[in-house]
């Protein structure tokens, strides 16, 4: 989690942070579940790949040499999906202020996919608060929350 305190152009102090979401958020407009095989399919495919590689390397004749690049390919295949899963996790970006005497408290939240995109969005929000006093912009995933 990365958090920053920013003083906006209007004098309010904003707290801006990003958090990784470890469980997928429930959204009403997300229809990927209709074509998703689920955890069972993923376990089945990964088990089949594991059995394939075990058979390939364990049952080989003694005089057969396995080239180093094949070990690298096996490692890449095993690590591809966990690394992709981690890099594509959704991040929640939050900008909130307690307000001031004449300005109300505000809370803006939004979700972006990927750590680098979340970091970039955090940088944009900080710049907008310092120059324009609001975290939202035309293409912003941030929306005001009541």
What would you say this structure looks like, in words?
This protein has three helices and five strands; from the N terminus they run ββααββαβ. It is α+β, with helices and mostly antiparallel strands. The protein folds into two domains: about 1-20 and about 90-145, no CATH class; about 30-85, no CATH class. Strands 1-2-3-4-5 form a five-stranded antiparallel sheet, with helices on one face. The radius of gyration is 23 Å and the shape is elongated. The model has no long low-confidence stretch (mean pLDDT about 85).
Q: How many distinct beta strands?
A: 5
Number of helices: 3
Largest sheet: 5 strands, antiparallel
| Envelope shape | elongated
How many domains make up the 3D coordinates? 2
Largest sheet, spatial ordering of strands: 1-2-3-4-5
Assembly classification: single chain
Instruction: Write down the Rg.
Output: 23 Å
Mean pLDDT: 84
Report the order of strands and helices: EEHHEEHE
Q: Output the structural class.
A: alpha+beta
Report how far apart the termini are: 23 Å
Secondary structure layout plus pairing:
Layout: E1 2-7, E2 13-20, H1 38-58, H2 68-87, E3 90-97, E4 106-113, H3 115-132, E5 143-144
Antiparallel strand pairs: 1-2, 2-3, 3-4, 4-5
Question: Which features does this protein show?
Answer:
single chain; 146 residues; alpha+beta; 2 domains; 5-stranded antiparallel beta sheet; 3 helices
């Amino acid at each position: 989690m990365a958090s920053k305190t920013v003083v906006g152009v209007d004098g309010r102090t904003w707290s801006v942070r990003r958090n990784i979401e470890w469980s997928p958020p429930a959204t009403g407009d997300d229809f990927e579940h209709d074509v998703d095989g689920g955890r069972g399919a993923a376990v089945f495919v990964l088990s089949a790949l594991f059995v394939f590689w075990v058979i390939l390397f364990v049952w080989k004749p003694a005089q057969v040499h396995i080239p180093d690049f094949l070990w690298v390919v096996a490692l890449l295949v095993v690590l591809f999906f966990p690394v992709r899963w981690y890099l594509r996790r959704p991040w929640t970006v939050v900008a909130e202020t307690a307000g001031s005497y004449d300005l109300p408290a505000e809370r803006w939240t939004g979700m972006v996919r990927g750590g680098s995109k979340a970091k970039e969005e955090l940088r944009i929000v900080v710049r907008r608060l310092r120059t324009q006093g609001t975290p939202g912009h035309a293409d912003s995933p941030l929306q005001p929350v009541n």
